[in-house]
Queue: 3 jobs
Job 1
Amino acid sequence: MQDKLKALRDQILAEISVASDVTALEQVEITCLGRKSQFSQLMKQLGELSAVERREVGQLANDLKQEIQDALKLRRSELLQVEFKALAETDRIDVTIPGLRPETGHLHLTTQAIQDIVDIFSRVGFTRVRHPEVEWDWFAFEALNMPPDHPARDEWETFFIDAPQHSKLGKMVLTPHTTSGSARELKKGQLPIRMMNISKTYRRQIDVSHVPMFHQFEGLLVDRDVSVTHLKGILDHFAREFFGAGRHTRLRPFHFRFTEPSFEVDISCGICSGSGRSEDGSKCRLCKEGWLELGGAGLLHPNVLTAGGIDPEEYSALAFGWGVERTMMMRSGIMVDDIRVLYKSDFRFLNQF
Ligand code: PHE
């Protein structure tokens, strides 16, 4: 029995020494010392021995078991060291290498401009409102003194939506200008009004200087005795705040069906300060005549106030509406040869702002 035990010990130690990794070693432990192992079988036979023999053999068995367990432990730590070493080669982390900075985004330049515009007008009491982009013909045209089939409508190259008509408000359109929001604001019947409506607008046009979806911002002020003087003051406030000190606006007579009088608004050129001349006397290379065109404005036509349920004898209103993209590009001096680049999601362009 003692010889058997010793032979078994030698065999187990040999297996332990050749186990090539921790898993193999665990397997050796189970098969050599586990319940079904030869070693356990031998232990069960202890009971058949005499008391003296049992003590002797039992002692030997315990010593051998201890010896085997020590060998297992030693081999295990050897194998682990080898494994860790290999891991350190293949899966190394150098905590001293500088980290990778996560990419941070920023607002689109149109959104940045919208925020500036809202900020500038809120300082003179205009509150931002929002109106639908999908609009009824009545708000986009009829309430604005443009009856059905009026040729003035052509200017707005409208997208009509293939949907059932409203019995009173007519066809559904993608709003071609923010003045539809002004018509809606009048209808609310809460006076006085000082609103700033900024929204997406849509027109059937696409080329290097037009995109079918663009943004307009529209100011509307309705109160008693509103005059062109107020309009001029507000526009100059915007010119100074948005484009910089020293810039001012000029009103040029124009025609819109929904305003009377109507104007186109120009801003003094930032390069020649409105003179149209460079220092050497030649024509200004940017504006050629001292002024750059911004957009439309005027005092609301009495028919428009009436359509909105407001008495034109008692109230008057000023309104202006411009394109956000055009205005912001004039400020930053971005000279893009194709405005469509704004909405192409090309990071090479967008990351510059
Ligand atoms: N809605 C006009 C346009 O799209 C601009 C405008 C707004 C003109 C308000 C006068 C008053 O061209």
Job 2
Amino acid sequence: MCGIVGYIGNRNCLGLIIDGLKRLEYRGYDSAGVAILDKNNDINIYKKKGKVKELESEFNIEDLSGHTGIGHTRWATHGEPNDINAHPQTDMSGNIAVVHNGIIENFKTLKKKLEKENYKFVSDTDTEVLANLIQYHFKQNNNFETAVRYALSEVEGAYGIAVLNRSVPDKIIIARNGSPLMFGLGKDEIIVSSDAAAIINVTKNVIYLEDGEIAVLKYDSFQIKTITDEDIFREVQRIDYDIEEIEKGGFEHFMLKEICEQPDAIQNTYRGRINFQTGDVKLGGLETVKDKLFNAKRIIITACGTAWHAALVGEYMFEEYCRIPTEVEYASEFRYKNPIINKDDVIIFISQSGETADTMAALKEAKRLGATTIGIVNAVGSSIARAVDAGTYIHAGPEIGVASTKAFTCQLMSLVLITLMIGKNKGTISDENLMEIAAELKLIPEKIREIIERKNDFKFIAEEFKDSRNFLYLGRGLNFPVALEGALKLKEISYIHAEGYPAAEMKHGPIALIDENMPVVFIAPKDSTYDKIISNIEEIKARKGKIITVATQDDNEINNYSDYIMRVPKTLPIFSPILNSIPLQFLSYYIATARGCNVDQPRNLAKSVTVE
Ligand code: M6R
């Protein structure tokens, strides 16, 4: 959740590190800091509570020269966000500086051990303990790499770290266990980061570190080993997107940019994978496991947050169109419930970042239990993408806004493709139906464009409701998860309390909340659920709730029941969650901006949740 940047090379690195940290701020942003080795081999540290721009006001970039440095943006786990707990953390002599993502679970034990050796601590962080532990081992054996390896062999928990040592100024040492870390190879320079977004400005050639590995980096060479000292050879990989893709491109916020990118993003998800005439789908990444998928007795889908909502839609799709019993699990619960997993089970992991710690932990458990594992992931080369048996990338492009938007709809599109692939093979979808779905699929980007063109209508509704204190979102069938997603979007960026429910559940409790101050958003497509939804709307109207509907373009009947309507083009049921989500994304975006909230970096949240 925090971000790491490091540099060793021929340039003055402070500006580069600051630039990289700004690109990573979406991952965590309660404090930031840098440590720069100057020409006298002194470590200069600046750190500050708040965002990177607060940190920048602490120094004059021109005054601080140095060709080796590390930096960090923090999302607090141990110790409140303040200047002292910000990273880099040093050992008590100031010799070793460490930036760290993750949690060292046994830090209290390690701290006690060091205190017995007269080590003193000034922060509340687990990272300061690690810095001192490295120094402790460095004092014993005077070898930087060995000291880091020995220290890490004592550590329990997750980490991605970068370490500077003023006694060994020609090296940065990095290591990872459960928290992403990679380095980019430039000409006579190496840039380290927890996320490719901070590397891409310098080079597109990257090496991903795996769990249990450590790399010793010099400006012109590197060496990777396991923590247990075995040599590792690793191929260089190319990053497949450009810097423009991770910049705002004229939009006020990343979230708005990403909402508006959905027509192209969705097209990228299905491009080259479906025959529009026949509906035949080929997902290259699933070739090795497709027989397992076709013969699965049961599919389990697991994920967190928005990706979990996509999983719920997937459950409807697999059961309705493929007739495969499907279960959805919160990834964070999966491994703690002693899951009953058979070898014939296929478990699908959905993740935008591919780094979510809970999802990764569930994946490890699923593999341990012998299931076939499949990823639906956005971030290419991410930990989950590499750990699954097989997978399909959603190709949504980098998603920077903390609130997931385009990744969600692209996850839904990936699930449609998998559904069609299985349905065709099992014969649970007729050829005629396949052809109809394939023809409609091709129109989805254009239909999303039509919705985007109506964004001012959604903005108008947002203005009306920006001061509401609560919201209810209701939907049925495939659109029940869309209601959950609409509510999540609103609460995470506008801090308005919102809940999603299956529309019929409302009368079993939530209806008690309804009065003239309660806006209720109904997802009301013209499908088999329509009449029931109308009855549910009547129940709310009778209690004076305000009705906002997401309704199909040509549905005039809905005018009689709605105070406000958000229109979407007509489509087939399998695509309705995609189209219906988009007005809800706009609604939450415009409510949040009208309230003056920072939509790209909402409080307490981070883009990639790499702690359990
Ligand atoms: O990167 P992932 O898809 O694994 O992330 C899962 C959730 O943390 C994420 O969807 C989160 O709920 C978003 N902030 C929702 O907008």
Job 3
Amino acid sequence: MKLPKILAFISLSAIIACSKVSPPAPYGACPTPQQVAWQRMEINMFCHFGPNTFTGAEWGDGTEAEELFNPTALDCRQWADIAQRAGMGGIILTAKHHDGFCLWPSKQSAHTVAQSTWRNGKGDVLQELSDACTEAGVAMGVYISPWDRNAPTYGTPQYNETFRMTLEEVLSRYGTVGYDGKRHIFEQWFDGANGEGPNGKKQTYDWQLFNGTVARLQPEALIFSDIGPGCRWVGNENGEAGETCWSTLNTDGYAPGAGSPPIDTLNHGNLRGAKWVPAETDVSIRPGWFWHADEHPKSVAELLRIYYSSVGRNSLLLLNVPPDSRGLISAEDSVRLLEFRAALDSIFSTDMAKSVQITASHTRGGKRCKEFSPHNLTDGDYDTYWAVDDSILTPVLTLSFNQPVTFNRIMLQEYIPLGQRIAAFEIEYQETDGRWCRLAEGTTIGYKRIILTPKTTTKSLRISIKSSLACPILNNIGLFMDNIL
Ligand code: FUL
């Protein structure tokens, strides 16, 4: 055979050999396509806005006069514009916080924008946000607090019905208009706080009714609560997901709020947990959730640390940026957010792994099988990945560079549509004399893991999977230098 024929024969046999190899089967609890899309948003904006913005409180007691709510220059387009420029694809607004005040003219309450003097009682913040999000192509979510310190029926079974109708109003009227012409809410945020109502009573929430209502009206929306079902609270408000962070959780026998799993479990998830309930890290850019004149935003360095301990630990970051009493995101916060985005871009726009040669101890279907080749780790395509045969649980990747590279951040991503599998890994680098030295070790990877290492210069790196629940599947590797932190 002549050379071109031989080459054609070799590649044809590789294709034939490979075509017999099927992709790994999903392992354990796996995400829905909506959960994958949500996780890929990485950072979203939370907006706490309402009577507290004007009173300086963090928890209003529901007796605040409606006239207090009077933003002088409310502009949701400004919120959406800043979110978009800061790389946040979604905004979640406190449509109703614990004080019960509704930012839309709700028929279920007498404590709403309609009773305020703002825009002569004709204003509707949810409508304005829906329009702004639609124009900017930003997804819209809503926080609607079940705990209501204003509702007279709170503490009686009737309140559950009122709350259901409240949900119906919001979820059928508002949201970003999609290509299908329908209004979409991407996330329904249910706070677990469950205090007393105006009558001194505590409510037994009908979560089945509430979740069922969301599922019926916005089937694609993720429901956030302490235990999901769409995504879970990370267990603190400091911006810290666990170093070990499983997206799987056992929720049987638990309820949001007082009945939730221990904080530590929310922070780490459950190894082999029965449901896919990824962690969402909610944290404020300021000390409080609501805007207060005497508070200021966190520094870029603090925000970066939060990014690493949330997005970098398999969690979504929901960063609260509270509009001020004018109804605008303050200049201070906007500038800080854009600086934060510029810092992320400067760190992550140069990926040294792009020029790397990667070899794997194992490849599913054999070395020649392109479909599962380690080259997929750097091709920029989310849906291509490196995989190994089902029986291989501890494969090793070796990264070699022509020239030494200097970095201090290593990014690894598991292909989560097929489940979260890796439970332990180790990273080594090679010294100029050929010795391999341990650089880092860790447990879970999940959607994204960013490993902070000392500044390292090397021509070779080795990533060893030390423990995996099923054959590991990685779809991305990155190497970066952070000169800011
Ligand atoms: C908590 C609430 O009590 C805070 O006011 C805030 O809304 C935070 C995001 O959730 O449970």
